């Protein structure tokens, strides 16, 4: 039994979403959250590993946390520096930001009690590294499923992706490229692909409830 299993809040399912920049990770996450919003049997919570990371970085560097969170130019300016800074933290403790994110979520849920009596799903919206996969697999064992969102380069360019050295060619963006197996692969180049991918995920969840 690991330390999370001893707690009263423990997820029934942990979905780990990954994919290249502008493949649509946030889009897929928001669609799933929307679908299960106000569902009487399911409580789905989005978990963003980069949120506590950005908060800590903003604090240390006297920056605006809210601006770092959205898709603004501000985020692009600091992305590279933030990656380098967080890599140093991870060298000491690979699960540092994952733990911070999950503990923030659990402490909120203790207060709100909104998972009580519901099928509790955590959807991690930005899994980037093998160490992230390892952290969640160790913590939540066979309740973890991995989801890879895929879109072509031309689709991603149309969504304002610009190849950036120091961002697109470093570990935070490429570490999961050589992972051979994902439980689900979702194509997101057009409406029919994404609808079919989302339906597969929703059916999978409905069958577990
Ligand atoms: N299937 C879709 N239909 C319409 N718009 C989409 C679709 N998928 C993604 N988009 C849009 O493309 C843009 C990029 O998507 P999103 O922010 O979800 O990507 P991301 O993978 O989270 O990006 P990043 O890695 O930069 O955070 C957003 O404006 C989003 O609304």
TrEMBL record:
UniProt organism field: Brachionus calyciflorus
Gene3D superfamilies for the chain: P-loop containing nucleotide triphosphate hydrolases (3.40.50.300)
Source lineage: Eukaryota, Metazoa, Spiralia, Gnathifera, Rotifera
Record key words, sorted: ATP-binding, Cholesterol biosynthesis, Cholesterol metabolism, Cytoplasm, Kinase, Lipid biosynthesis, Lipid metabolism, Nucleotide-binding, Steroid biosynthesis, Steroid metabolism, Sterol biosynthesis, Sterol metabolism, Transferase
Pathway(s) this gene product operates in, as recorded in its UniProt entry: Isoprenoid biosynthesis; isopentenyl diphosphate biosynthesis via mevalonate pathway; isopentenyl diphosphate from (R)-mevalonate: step 2/3
Protein name: Phosphomevalonate kinase
GO biological process terms on file: cholesterol biosynthetic process; isopentenyl diphosphate biosynthetic process, mevalonate pathway
GO CC entries: cytosol
Record PANTHER family: PHOSPHOMEVALONATE KINASE
Localization, UniProt: Cytoplasm, Cytosol
Chain positions recorded as ATP binding sites: 20-26, 159
Subcellular location, principal: cytoplasm
Coiled-coil parts of chain: none
């Amino acid at each position: 039994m690991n330390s999370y299993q001893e707690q009263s809040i423990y997820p029934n399912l942990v979905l780990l979403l990954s994919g290249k920049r502008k493949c649509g990770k946030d889009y897929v996450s928001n669609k799933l959250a929307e679908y299960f919003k106000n569902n009487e049997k399911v409580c789905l919570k989005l978990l963003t590993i980069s949120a506590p990371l950005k908060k800590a970085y903003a604090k240390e560097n006297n920056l605006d946390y809210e601006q770092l969170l959205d898709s603004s130019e501000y985020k692009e300016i600091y992305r590279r520096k933030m990656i380098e800074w967080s890599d140093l933290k991870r060298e000491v403790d690979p699960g540092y930001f994952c733990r911070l994110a999950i503990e923030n979520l659990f402490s909120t849920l203790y207060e709100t009690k909104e998972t009580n009596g519901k099928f509790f799903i955590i959807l991690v919206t930005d899994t980037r590294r093998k160490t992230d996969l390892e952290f969640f697999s160790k913590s939540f064992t066979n309740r973890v499923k991995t989801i890879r969102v895929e879109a072509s380069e031309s689709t991603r360019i149309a969504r304002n992706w610009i190849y950036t050295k120091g961002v697109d060619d470093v570990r935070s963006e490429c570490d999961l490229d050589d992972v051979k197996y994902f439980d689900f692969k979702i194509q997101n180049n057009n409406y029919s692909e994404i609808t079919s991918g989302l339906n597969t995920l929703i059916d999978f969840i409905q069958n577990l409830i």
